[in-house]
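#data-curation
PF: Archiving a pair of folding outputs for the training set. Convention for this channel: one message per protein, sequence first, structure tokens after, nothing in between. First:
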Amino acid sequence: YRIYTADVAKNDKSGLYATYNKFSDMAGAGWAQGYIGYCANASLVKGYPDGTFKPGNSVTRRDFAIMLTQMLGVSNDGTAVSPFIDVDDDDYGVVSIAYCKAHNIISGYDDGTFKPDATITRQEAASMIVKAMGVSKASDELYPDDSTIAGWAKDAVYKAKAAGLMKGYEEDGTFRPTGKITRAEAASIMVNALNQ
């Protein structure tokens, strides 16, 4: 899952890929520096209190919903009634989660939960991003690990591929549907969506 900063910069439509040194651990962010800088400049992501971004850390379902709604221009500020039994009305992500539920970007689980603290998988992220972006065309070029993609996620995974929102891993082309999304990868997904 590698798209290099140089490739990002040449496709910049908004000038947000300026050098961004707010986070103390950007030197180790490699290919993701441009994406993270873009998202930080666009106020889509925040760092940790110690001044780091921690690009390799995983992303929760709650935090992906927050990033997604902010990418769509919807603020996470304010109040909302939670649509899920395991998300409190005063949860810091309730506004974004409620927005995603109301706009059919997420549906939750059959037991009425959302599992906000669970780490989001790549196929879950694909489902959310294509619904949010209204992608209609799917790629007919299958990933080498197509058989491991859940039936409910296949359409979304190949729509995300066709739209350039998500790609396979550089080393072997696989999608790795149950793999965890890192903060760096989430930033790249949001930038790809913004640049559609």
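PF: Second:
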Amino acid sequence: RYNSVMAKGERIIAISKFIANHIVENYGVNPKKINIAYRGIELGKFHPQLVNAERMVNMSKMLDLPDDRPVILLPSRLTRIKGPNVVIEALAHLKNKHVHCAIFGAKPENSHYQEELSDLAKKLGVEGMIRMHGPCKDMPAAYSLAAVAIAASVVPEGFGRMAAESQAMGCPTIATNIGAVPEVVLHGKTGWLVPPDDPIALAKAIDEALSMSDTQRANLATAAMAHVANSFSLENMCRVVLTTYEDLLAQRAGKKIKKKAKKK
């Protein structure tokens, strides 16, 4: 009932096809009333050529990254729905265990969950492979240092901003195959999609990402960056939103003209 008011406009703007389908199925809205404006990514910020060596060095020092291990990045909020426990469990199933996993989002208010994750890592014998950090202030630099970025959500999301940003940076991306994420990550073309809450499938995808040749990695980065630029730019989002309002205003103007013509 609370959300239903969002579906009562003359036009509805949805941030993904997943959300558009949800609106149609749950509120009986005519699909023709819905315009899809994917959440825009600021490509003037998220592009590998815009991250200089100084920023990467500073980020590496801040995260205390090892020089001899590929970095697995989990940049989401540190909550259960983002699946950090699944990532930790996946580390135990990796063929290549010579990795470093940087988990962002640690805060005083979620210290209890951090302890729970640390206990899980110790239980699985992977505590030396992970380190938890607070929120990151320079995500483009972090993505530039990562060998792979993971979006491990266990519940459907309306878009999947992290997966779009990491692909925009040309970073190999693994995400769960739920919600709108399959619209953001194209499995086998721009990244990997795995079932949610499946550490074995996630581990397999991580091993594949880490075993890519330089050519394979470059081809993946090119495809991912092009996909984001074509579909998820800030400009595309603004264009759809503004066009929606312009169309509505034009319809209103047309109705007024017809009313005046009838009166005459």
